[in-house]
Amino acid sequence: MRPKSLNFDELVERNKQELLRDEKEISQLELNLEKKQSEKAEEKQD
Asked: Any alpha helices (H) in the chain, and if so which ranges?
């Protein structure tokens, strides 16, 4: 049985939510990367 097809507005809303979630994940990854890079830079200074 096929899932119910979504209308245009529902698809737009779903895509918006997915983009917002992806944006949050990317921001978190960037913060983690910056943290690791600064830790490496501090290690090299020692």
From this structure: 8-45
